[in-house]
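Lecture 7, part B: from sequences to assemblies.

Below are the input chains for today's worked example.
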Amino acid sequence: MKHIKNIYSVLFFLLLAIVCGCSKTGDSFYPDGQYHTVSDVVQYCSGSCDSENDWEGNDIRVKGHIRNRANDGIMNTYFAGSYFYLEDIRNGFFMEIRVVASKGDIFDRITQSIPADIFYITGKAVAVEVDDGENCEKGVIIELDNIDNILLNAE
Amino acid sequence: MKKIIITGLLFICIVSSHFGQTVKQIHIDAGLLRNYDGFLKLYSGVIELGGDYSISLTKLLQAGVAFHAGYLNRNEGSMKAYLYKPAVQLAYTAHFSKRFALMPAANLGYAFINLRNDAYDYRETQSGLNTGIDLRFIWKTEDRTDFFIFGRYSYIYLDEDKHFTELEYYRNLHQSAFGIGIKIK
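Predicted structure of the full complex, as structure tokens:
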């Protein structure tokens, strides 16, 4: 019986130590530092509508693939609407990149790329609010205004 | 964390050597897997298969090693995730009647997650500590085989890799599985 108590004690403290070790929450995320994945940007730049955030209105760097790049119909829709989606191909998260200037040059660069190309984009993070009547959530889109703020396959 | 697992395995071996007349048992199970939050938030769970081999420390307490493999995918796109979860396990059997027993089990292991997107030739493996609990409702028979249904909760805390994600949120994976299995005595 003594053995059993010892086993339980060891496992209990082991699990306790693990739980304590897993509860760290300090993220070191600098929006205008290195290029971030789409997943990280989508999660970091979110929250309730009441919150005020360090990223709003500031430059942010993000990297990812053009969503549906191989679909010409969707690419035409992107061009007509002056936007495109950047996707994280690892888990499917995506975000809107709104083209606010240099539309022709930017879409030329996109159409010259292949689906496997990784885009590195610097733009202004703009908060958008989604209110379903019960909850109001804040998300992010990136405004892109310069062809020089797009790089392909290089950091 | 790998040291913890190795220590755990050694622990099981040492403990088993102290119990001469051990009763060995094998559980094999299959269930529907579901993922909540974390990096795989948008994935749909498909299946988890696996089993464990354990020895009786006492009439009611068992310890052993377990291995489960899971498969997740996305309905949209060609993303897939394969999970491999080796672990050590401590289980307790509560016999409620001649035919029915309840078996809670605690698992501690190290999980590997292989992510793939064939459309982009993308493959990557991440890993991290894995803990969880199982609850089995066992239907006992006179034969060598018992049957059970189970529920399983599994928590994976991925190792830090800033190239993979900079956020703690994505490193925490919560999963559940519900299914059926057999126990070979």
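Note for the exam: The first strand of chain B starts at residue 24 and ends at 36. Keep this in mind when comparing with the next example.
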